[in-house]
Input
Amino acid sequence: MIVNGDTSPVQVGIVSFGAGCGDRDYPGIYSRVSEFGDFIAAALADSIHLFSFLFLFLNNNDNKIKQLIIVLASNVKMEVHVMTLLILTNVVVWMVGLEIFVKVPFFFQQINKINNKINISSQSIIKSWIHSY
Amino acid sequence: MSPTSGIILSLLLFSSACFSLQTKDLPRGNISPKIVGGVEVNPQFKYPWMTGLFYGGTSANRQFCGATVIDSTHIMTAAHCTLGTPKDDVKAQVHRHDISKTPSSENGQVRDVIHMIVHPHYDTEWVNNDIAIWTLDSPLTSVTPVTLDTTGNYASSGTTVRTMGWGTTTEGGNPSTKLLQVDLKVISNTQCQFDYSFNANITGQMLCAGTSTGGKDSCQGDSDKFSLYFLNFI
Output
């Protein structure tokens, strides 16, 4: 749904739902686009396939290769996908069980350092996600 | 990390993937707002970011929802268009007007969908946060993305808004093969909540719009009225 349809359209809504035909006139209900700036920005943001890079990172003992993985991880486009984040928590929970969780904060620390340069913090995405659950 | 622990990790990843892929039920009730009137978009391709979502395997000829292009690889649609829709069965088509024609005859661009990001707070029961962003398999060429309202200043009540899609133009009739548009007025959330009473919870994330006249115009059975059911508009 847009305003200024004939001149300079701006999208304000997404068709959501509405009541079927009743004995009263029900308006159509739309998602209010201006409320979802954060979600849209997060979904479009450049980030990484965290879990796959985490896996690689933990499977490599060579420090030079680890550095390379961090750099690669910070530059690859990722979708901030609920499933990926769900997997990520499973990984963290599992690692706590195996007492190798020390490596995980280190990984995020490095990622954040680089991510700050490309104007996105994976930590903030994860924090907001954790908050939502 | 030992190979064994690697295998265990993979299994864990797989199990969580299966869990999260479970589809949810669609929102309860009738999710098709109805709108009076509707005219063909003129000129054709006036809204270059307008996207049709299609399913039906390789032919992908059944249009089920609308979307808008927000950058060369992302489109924005409703979360309810996403749930229960396997992404392998969906194609996004941009630069379309008459969907009874082939995409190539309209210079349409057809893309596969590789990711569907649903809002993490999408509420299937009350249909709150009904928004999703899909990623296309390859970038669109020469497409103008839609401008999004980031301020909230555009949609004050009483504003004229326009919605577009390939919906049904007559009661029980077939969906239009041509892209239609209809103009509506924004209705305040307070009024909208009053209209819906306990049947819906109108949150700040929602925006209501209807015909300015109100009344009982577009009810089923109103055979002398022209009504338009918006299952798949944007």
About this structure: The beta strands of chain A are 2-3, 10-11, 13-17, 28-32. Residues 82-98 of chain A form the longest helix (17 residues). Chain A touches chain B through 57 residues (CB under 8 Å).
